[in-house]
Amino acid sequence: MEWISELPGQLWASLVLFAFAISTMTAIELITGRERHSLRSRIPGLVFWLLWSVVAAFAYGGFHALWRHIGVDPLIVLPLTFTWAGAAAVVAAPLASAFVADFFFYWCHRAQHRWLWRFHAVHHSVRELNSTNSFHHVTEPFVQAVLITLPSSLIVSETGAVVPMIALLLHMQSSYIHSSSRWHFGPLRSVFVDNRFHRIHHSTEVRHFDRNFGAVTPLWDRLFGTAYFPAADEWPTTGIAEADQPRTLRQWVSLPWRLAQPAGADTRADGGEETGLQTA
């Protein structure tokens, strides 16, 4: 159980990255936001994320400990150090690795919509979507350990010393794509997912359902036919019809079992009169 002793360090590193990403994006949202979300309304999301991080440390730490114990080696190692690119490798290596990681995330995300909707619906239930209120259900780390960490451990990216930069990049990107900021990537949206692109994935409009699964690049959505590039003024409402977003710990944990619709029914809030569960 040596991995238990490593958890505090892993958790601390994760919390530092999380705090940096959230605080940075919250400040940007307050200055450039399309919507007004009070700081008070972000508190439940912040609490959920902190508890989620503790669970994630155990889920990922336990997985890596099990893999080391079994002695599983990667089947494929992708040489993504880009040493030939000189100083540009500092940027190219983490981006290439993030694109590879996003491939596994894309298919995990699609699986969640198909077979694990009750739990993934917690993430989609958020109607005041921003960098803080973009939380997942507490079981999410275990799902990602099986559907992302496991396959990506068999096809790894050799990136050298830029691994911490990759972690920071992914934290910042995750916060940004859920933000309500007016800032977007403009022409670069064909290469990188921005908050307008990902907003479509959380949309309440039927024509947007099951679109834009990628979190880093729209490449995989393009290749597999799920890409939808929004117009400049397209900023739909978010949420689901089955339930309102959780605002207490009890609601957060219990939401998958309180949904009114059958599992796998990917529905959204209609943006009008509330039809979901009332908060306690």
Shape: globular
Oligomer: single chain
Low-confidence stretches: 271-280
Gyration radius, rounded? 19 Å
Bin the strand percentage.
under 5%
Helix amount, in percent? 40-55%
N- to C-terminal separation?
40 Å
Fold topology:
Layout lengths: L1 H31 L10 H28 L5 E4 L9 H27 L1 H8 L15 H15 E4 L4 H15 L17 H7 L17 H5 L25 H10 L22
Parallel strand pairs: 1-2
Helix pairs in contact: 1-2, 1-6, 2-5, 3-4, 3-5, 3-6, 4-9
Brief account:
The chain is an all-alpha fold. 52% of the residues lie in helices and 3% in strands. The chain has a two-stranded parallel ribbon with strand order 1-2.
Question: How would you sum up this structure, described in words?
Answer:
The chain is mostly helical and 280 residues long. The protein is globular, with a radius of gyration of 19 Å. The protein contains nine helices and two strands. α3 crosses α6. The chain has helices spanning 2-32, 43-70, 89-115, 117-124, 140-154, 163-177, 195-201, 219-223, 249-258, and strands spanning 76-79, 155-158. It has a two-stranded parallel sheet.
Please describe the structure with a list of short key phrases separated by commas or semicolons:
280 residues, mainly alpha, two-stranded parallel sheet, 9 helices, 3% strand, disordered C terminus
